[in-house]
Every structure is written in structure tokens, then in C-alpha cells.
Amino acid sequence: MLFNTNLPIEEVIPDIRQAMAAGRNAVLEAPPGAGKTTLVPLTLLEEPWLKGRRIVMLEPRRLAARAAAVRMANLLGEEVGKTVGYRTRLDSRLGPSTRLEVVTEGILTRFLQSDPSLDGTGLVIFDEFHERSIHADLGLALCLETQTVLREDLRILIMSATLDGQDVATVLGNAPVVKSEGRSFPVETRYLPERRLSMRGNDLTGPSFISVVANTIIKAILDEEGSILAFLPGGSEIRRVESKLKEGNLPSNIDVVPLYGDLPLELQDKAIRPSHPGRRKVVLATSIAETSLTIEGVRVVVDGGLMRVSRFSPAAGMSRLETVRVTRASADQRRGRAGRVEPGVCLRLWSETEGRTLKEQNTPEILEADLTPLALELAAWGAKDAEELRWLDTPPTGALAHARELLAHLGAIDERFSVTSHGKEMARMGLHPRLAHMALRGKKIGVGNLACDLAAILTERDLFKMQQGQEDSDLRLRVEALQGHRSEQGQRRPRNRSGDS
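User: That's the sequence. What structure does it adopt?
Assistant: C-alpha cells below.
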């Protein structure tokens, strides 16, 4: 299958095909923009060894999964849901002829738990594996066991932008590593040390940070050509910078568009689409724009130097988001966004000296996350000892023991770490075990609706947006609003022919 895309990955496509035909597993190293996410799956779709079976490709984020499926369907001249489809939480586009399914990571775990043999699947692709999410690590460990015990013909391909592929190749049984050099234009890097003023306080994203980012963007609009991509740690900072920019009398041909996971799909699409002729845009994005997504027209990157990561607190027994300094690998990926289509500029809001102190890579999530969901999945899989599986990083013994104590307290596992019937129900729900237990217990005692409302509010991002300065964490307000919305929707629902609601 040939596509006239002129992307760098095309040069190594023959090597990828040969590696996948000769053995079961392979690793592909390719920088962002090389074309690996879209061209590699489509190229392998008609390989003889696939025998008409489907390909499942994992993407770490919902927005990237949907965008990749749309792009591949466009290359085939089809609508999404025909040959190429996607499946994410609460959203899917699939059809009876779908053979290439792009999914977010937790969904693969559900596939494996319901059908360990992955019947009908010939290839599993782990895209952007360098992000090292706990779901990707678990999914790979389970796929490797399926391949060893049940499906010798199952193939696995790991694709990564910044991770050293040799360690992954070893876990895959000394699989071959294919490297694509990619293609990018020169990017001039400028350091702006005044950013350090806001690094000294406890509030890394305080007013001084917002002002520095906004002023840097405004100066870039006046001094440079093309569209601008600015990296910020989260939605709150994006909204504050957006407000600051709109107070600054921007040129009339500038569109300011946010891009983060909590946005409605139509607003996410607006950020990704090319600007209209004669117009430029400023995209205010989280780390979601580092990889997988292509944002047309960008030649200037403004990097705020911060990102949000999930950290588990043993004292609280819950995970929380923390704002931390960007890693060197992430900073390099952000910088590369400015050189996709022409020479660009990257404005880093820290000093060159500070840059030398950045961590090289993100810590794999499995080494510092809450392992309770993973421990429940292992119990449901039948693995009483995590070391029965092959891992790139084995789950820490202490954290896993802590997780199993909680599961035993919830009645999800017994003293031999075997899953109970209650644990099986919890695992099927796809919620954190604490919330799954709450929902099941709530149903048993007659308050199932309330328990599910609470689980929804605690699982997803804040369902009810408030104006800045009006934040209120009281769950009662959200439950009342959700119940009121449901009641209003029920009143608006048209009656059927028999007159019943």
C-alpha cells in the first residue's frame, strides 16, 4: 500500500516490513513528525502474515487516538469507521469492516481480560511508548504472556520517539530495532532567563509566570511570522494566558485557540486545523501537543518549561497532579514542533544553565503511581506474582504490597491474592478500585445512582466549569447540578407513541 506523503518514515518502511515478516516483534525509533503513527499501520494492513485480521494500535491520549484515525481514514479516502476506526472512553467510531482500530490504553487491557487470546487480532502496536504510562507497561506485559502461552502468531510493534529502543527490544526477546532519522528544518533556540523569577516561589504558575508567557507570545507575534504553539502545564494556565492575551490588543488576524484534553471535540479540531488564508493562530496547549498531533502552520514554539504529572501519595491513598519542570526529552520534542515545515524559533522561558539541570526523561509511571488498579488487573488476569510477567520496569514490591492490602480490605482479593467475585465485578467497571467498590456497594444498599454520580465526578475532569475565582470543591454542589441536569433532560424527552416517557 503506497501513499504519496513524502514523509521520512517511508525510507525505512521496507525495513519495518522485513522485520515484522521475519519475526514476531520489532521496535521502531522515529522522531515526532516522521509519519510513524499514520503510515506504518496502514502499510502493514495488507501484509500476508496478518491474514486479514485486525490491527490494534494504542495511543496514550484520546485526542491523539481520534486524530490518528481521522488522518489514516483520509489517506484511504474513507470515512472514519470503515477500514480505520477508533475506540476511546465514551466515544467510538467503528464498523463491521474495521480492521485498524486505534484505542486508548486502558481499552487494550479490557480486550485482554475479556479475551486473553485476542482472537481476530494479528498485530498490536504501542505508539508513543516513550511516555511510559502504566497502562502501556501493563498492556505490553499481558500481550507478551498472551504471545508466549496462547498466540505464537501474535505480533507486537513498539514505536517510540525518544526512548532508547534497545531495552525494549530485550524485553521483546531481542527484537530488531529499526531507526528513522526523521526530517526537520533548523530551529533557533533562544533562552529567556527572566522566567527564573517565577521559579523561585512556591507557586510556579503564579501571576508573574502568566505575564511572562503572555508577553513573550505578544512579542513573538510582532517579531516572527507564522503561527505560534505555546506549552503550558494545564487548562487553568491556558485560560489565564488566553484572558491576558485578549486584553493585549492583538492584531486583528490573530486567533487564540486552546488545546487540552478537557475541551469539546469541536474546539480541539479548531486548534489542529490549518488557519484560514491571511490569518495566524496562537495555540495554547498542554503536553498533549508534544507528540502524535500535527498542528498546521506552526513555526514558533514558546515553552513555559512546566508540565503536570500524576503522583501517588501513600499518606492520602490517592493520586494528585503536581506541577514540575519539564524533562530534557520533552523540551526537545516541544522544540522540534517549530521545525516541521520550515525553519523555526523556540523560545524557552528558562536560562541555558537551568536547562542543563533538567531530568533526562520522565520517570516511568509504574515506578511512582498508585498501583491499586494494576494490582486488581493482575489478580483478574490470574498473576499472583508480578514477576511472572515480563516488564520493562517491574512494579515496586512495596507499592504493590500496599495496593494489595487495600484490595483485600475492599474484598477484591483473598489471602492468596486471587480475585474474588466482587473483585471481578470491580475490574469490569473500568474505574479506580475504590470508586468501583463504592458504586457496587451503593447499588447494594439502594443508593446506586448517587454512588455512580460521585464516581463520575471523581473520575472525569471537573464536569462543571466555574469562572476563575469561583472554584468550590464541594461535591454536593456537583451532585445536585448533575441530578438537576438529568431531571431537566428527562422532562424534555419526547413521549413515545403509547404516551409513556
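Residues 147 and 154 are 6 Å apart (CA to CA).
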